[in-house]
Amino acid sequence: MKLKPGDPNFIGEIRMKNLLFILLLLVITGAYGQQTKVENNVLYKSVSLPKDDARFLALKRIAQKYLPQFIDSLQKHGRDTEGYRFVVKSDFVEGSNHEHMWSEVIGYSNGIFRAIFIDSPFTLKNIKLGDKISINQADVEDWAVHDLRTKKITGEFSEKYLNTKQ
Q1: Sign of the CA dihedral 91, 143, 151, 166?
Q2: 25 strand-pairing partners
């Protein structure tokens, strides 16, 4: 039986899928970073960039330019959770601390993505794995569509660049 949002075991299933996805993402893209930690048997690494990093900002503009492609794919395949995974990266802020992290998109309407947070913050305390969040379309810094059947990934505009910052 397929679980749906609202079912008691849905969040547990999402967490397990998220852990496996993050591990897969680290293996596929190569982990990057200056900070590292292990949480729930998953290795997390981060990278620090200047706020005005020209290359990262250019890649964010490219991700924004092609965001309609992401939204079209989400509208076509978003209900197929066995075949597709839709994730966006955005900036999370707490005081003067910023962390750019991934969330899994579960819906979209009127310029707002409904999502479940799937990353692991290093310094932020106001968000945790599994939190339901809303992300403004304009705040998306990167995105990815994972075709789980073909293993094809579309998007991930900043990942190669961030991997060079190890």
Answers
A1: negative
A2: none
Distance CA 121, CA 119 (A): 7
Please give the Cα distance from 28 to 163 (Å, whole number). 11
The total of other beta-carbon atoms located within 10 Å of residue 24's CB is 14
Looking at the DSSP bridge assignments, the partners of residue 38 are: 43
Task: Name the pTM for this structure.
Answer: 0.74
C-alpha distances in angstroms, 95 versus 89, 124, 125? 19, 9, 11
State the pairing for strand pair 97-109/84-94: antiparallel
Paired tokens of 52: 């005005």
Alpha helices in 30-78 (DSSP H): 54-65, 67-77
Per residue of the chain (166 residues), give pLDDT as tens: 555 555 555 555 555 565 555 544 444 333 333 566 566 666 666 778 888 889 999 999 999 999 999 999 999 999 999 999 999 999 999 998 888 999 999 999 999 999 999 988 888 899 999 999 999 999 999 999 999 999 999 999 998 888 887 6
Is the backbone of residue 110 left (phi > 0), alpha (psi -120 to 50) or beta?
left
